[in-house]
Amino acid sequence: MIEFEMPEQIVMTNNALRTVAENMMRPVSRHYDEQEHEVPWDYINFMHMAMRATGAGSLAPDSGRKKETEPGKEKPRLGYQSLAFMLEMLSWGDTAMYLVTPGGGLGAAAVEAAGSPEQKQKFLARFRGEKPVFAAMAMTEPQCGSDTSAIRTTAVLDQAANQWVLNGEKIFVTAGHKSLELSDGFVVVWATIDPSAGRAGMRAFVVERGTPGIKVAKLEHKLGIRASDTASIVLQDCRVPFENMLGSVEIVREGTTKGFKGAMATFDATRPLVAAMAVGVARAALEMLKEELQKNGIELRYGLPRQKMTSIEREVMDMEVMVRSAWLLVLKAVWMADNRKPNSMEASMSKVRAGDVVTKITQRAVEILGPLGYTTDTLIEKWFRDAKISDIYEGTGQINRLVVARQILGYSGRELR
After folding, report:
1. Which pairing describes strands 186-192 and 202-208: parallel, antiparallel, or unpaired?
2. What is the pLDDT of residue 258?
3. Which residues contact 140 (CB under 8 A, 6 or more apart)?
4. Known active-site residue 313
5. Per residue in 271-280, pLDDT tens?
6. Closest among 141, 124, 152, 149 to 58, alpha carbons compared
């Protein structure tokens, strides 16, 4: 059964994370927004030590270790549910700062979704080491965004050397710089082993730091989430070990193969977490809006019929409904993920709803507060800029609407585009 309250196992953790959000993230979030690409090492090192001390290891489901349970008792899986609560709180502090929290991120999620048990043990174990480690996922290309079948980065097998040779360019790689140049991390690169096979030829390759032939070409200057690096990566005769490919080598030209399924499984796991981040930003903006209204003598009178409320009262209460509805969709999607239930539709629903909610709430908060919302006197305008990315990465709102529509109507990707 789905629980709508915070699980007891993470209540204390979330209280600690709120302290981090209030005292380590918000006080410096403006600085790192204005000093784009400066790395907040104090925050990174503190979070790494804190996660090691608590046994968390990283902000990713820990599939690399064996779970011990009492005979006859199976503990409920709370991996993605716990992450949703944690990410919502850290994003309430500052979503850009959260994105530089050490851990596996999308790279670890891809290994979790498409990797073998041996690969999971090998690549995920490093997040429990003494130093902060980052991982990233590289899928988007200059000519290929949402249409993954158009990927042109190639992987050719050199049988004599037992290596894959990768060539291509990837853009908008979150944490690519920190994964390849600032930590002992890796990037999961999606490439095709047969361009004529379309999605059937897609495979994921773990490219570790120090691998010859991969380099960060540039860092993007962005509207929001400026504390997080977004990199362009070039692969030129980049050689990776044969065993660093996630999944099967065999190509099945008919239907969807494990390679493409691995990519989609990654998104099914991470889209609700992006939605949780969006909810955190929306809640932060809404709470600050209510605080500023109260400072100016505007009280919200709950319990009155709507026709007796002011327009501001009605609007703020509608925002509260929006945040709660988005959060309920997140909880359902992550509960399904933890219980190994197919959640593609629910993951996309949560992402669509949360992306809409955070964009609307932050924009309206700026408008209602006027000069106070538009200037840098508060963090509202920053959250407005940070919010839009929630509707873009991990699949745009338009793509996720297509996913939902196909699931409801029973259409394939070819039938409904």
Report:
1. antiparallel
2. 54
3. 170, 171, 172, 173
4. no
5. 999 999 999 9
6. 124
Instruction: Say what percent of the chain tops pLDDT 90.
Output: 73
Q: How far apart are CA 21 and CA 345, in angstroms?
A: 31
On the CB side of 70, CA atoms within 13 Å amount to 3
Top-confidence residue, 100 or 255: 100
| Distance between CA atoms of residues 273 and 229, nearest Å | 19
Determine which one of 88, 208, 381, 394 is catalytic. 394
Confirm if 274 and 390 have CB atoms less than 8 A apart: yes
Answer whether 366's CB lies under 8 Å from 373's CB.
Answer: yes
Q: For residue 222, what are the contacts with CB-CB under 8 A and spacing of at least 6? A: 36, 230
- pLDDT of res. 104: 85
Q: What is the pLDDT of residues 357-403, one digit of tens each?
A: 999 999 999 999 999 999 999 999 999 999 999 999 988 999 999 99
Q: Which residues contact 1 (CB under 8 A, 6 or more apart)?
A: none
pTM of the model: 0.91
Positive or negative, the CA dihedral 31, 372, 16, 14 is negative
Domains of the chain: 128-246 (2.40.110.10), 258-409 (1.20.140.10)
Note the pLDDT tens digit of each residue in 343-356. Answer: 999 999 999 999 99
The mean pLDDT value of the chain amounts to: 89
Q: Are 382 and 33 in contact (CB under 8 A)?
A: yes
Residue 207 and residue 155 in contact, taking contact as beta carbons nearer than 8 Å = no
Closest to 104 (Cα-Cα) out of 172, 58, 46? 58
